[in-house]
Design brief:
- The chain is of the alpha/beta class.
- The chain folds into 2 domains: 162 residues, Alpha/beta knot (3-Layer(aba) Sandwich); 77 residues, Helicase, Ruva Protein, domain 3.
- Helices cover 46% and strands 11% of the residues.
- It is built from 11 helices and 7 strands.
- It has a 7-stranded parallel sheet with strand order 3-2-1-6-4-7-5.
- Helix 1 links the parallel strand 1 and strand 2.
- Helix 5 packs across helix 7 and helix 8 packs antiparallel against helix 11.
- It binds S-adenosylmethionine.
- The site of S-adenosylmethionine has 19 residues, from helix 7.
- S-adenosylmethionine (SAM) binds next to helix 7.
- It comes from Marinomonas aquimarina.
């Protein structure tokens, strides 16, 4: 179950932080580390700071883009010490762990940590369903990244211990790439019926994405929404209700 939870570090600058994070994760039973375009890696400093968790570094997945790190995830959580313009539902580290543990039985989950200098970019937060803010002194709430990972990992470990005595069932959620196909279809339909004007799209599509990420439709609900779009397409005479995104979704439907 804990192996379905991945810690994703974006553009981490100091290799020592990567090593310290591997150690913090292993102490708390986590093993799945993703590095998105790290600044200086592999590195002796990372290996030395990892101490007994060098195996996590050896098995880390290194990717160039955030998309590659989260495509097959059904829940993406961004950590940030800042409040954002487009606010997502905010959880503290304990609430995050209590959400993550039951879902990790069925789904891949990504928890994103930002750059040491400027954290997560707004477009990265926009890919998340939830935000985690680790409660801290309002005058200086910005933790070192490895300490932030340590706290989140500790809460996950504690919630995991607790879960073994209190089992919960969770609904099935779509993966990120299934949500992306839905967004593609939504966009085509809204352009097709001139609800959004192609040359002047404004912020409507971004706001709708934000809304759906916040409300997190279940897999079955997403199927209904896709059906609604197909019916709109048919009524409006758009491509026989078979948009590019719908065809792609059908092709990509693989047994779970
Ligand atoms: C040093 S902080 C980045 C600080 C950056 N100046 C900013 O404003 O986001 C590096 C990373 O640690 C995590 N972090 C640090 N403090 C946090 C907090 N209080 N709550 C949640 N995440 C935190 C976030 O992932 C953040 O991107």
């Amino acid at each position: 179950m804990l192996s379905n939870i991945r810690i994703v570090l974006i553009n981490t600058f100091h290799p020592g932080n990567i090593g310290a994070i591997a150690r913090a994760m292993k102490n708390m039973g986590l093993s799945n580390l993703y590095l998105v375009d790290p600044n200086d890696y592999p590195s002796e400093e990372a290996t030395s700071r990892a101490a007994g968790a060098v195996d996590l570094l050896e098995n880390a997945t290194i990717v160039n883009t955030l998309e590659e790190a989260i495509d097959d995830c059904s829940l993406v959580i961004g950590t940030s010490a800042r409040h954002r313009t487009f606010q997502l539902p905010i959880m503290n580290a304990r609430e995050c762990a209590e959400t993550v543990i039951p879902e990790a039985k069925e789904h891949n989950i990504a928890i994103l940590f930002g750059r040491e200098t400027m954290g997560l970019l707004n477009e990265e937060i926009a890919q998340c369903h939830r935000q985690v803010y680790i409660d801290a002194n309002d005058e200086y709430p910005v933790l070192n990244i490895s300490q932030a990972v340590q706290i989140v990992s500790y809460e996950i470990w504690m919630a995991h211990q607790n879960e073994q005595t209190h089992e919960k069932t969770v609904p099935e959620y779509p993966r990120k790439k299934e949500m992306d196909l839905f967004y593609e279809h939504l966009e085509e339909t809204l352009y097709g019926i001139n609800f959004v004007v192609r040359n002047h799209p404004g912020k409507v599509l971004d706001k709708l994405k934000r809304f759906f990420n916040r409300s997190r439709p279940e897999k079955q609900e997403l199927g209904i929404l896709r059906g609604v779009l197909a019916a709109v397409d048919r009524e409006a005479g758009l491509n026989d209700g078979q948009s590019h995104a719908v065809k792609k979704a059908k092709e990509e439907q693989t047994p779970e």
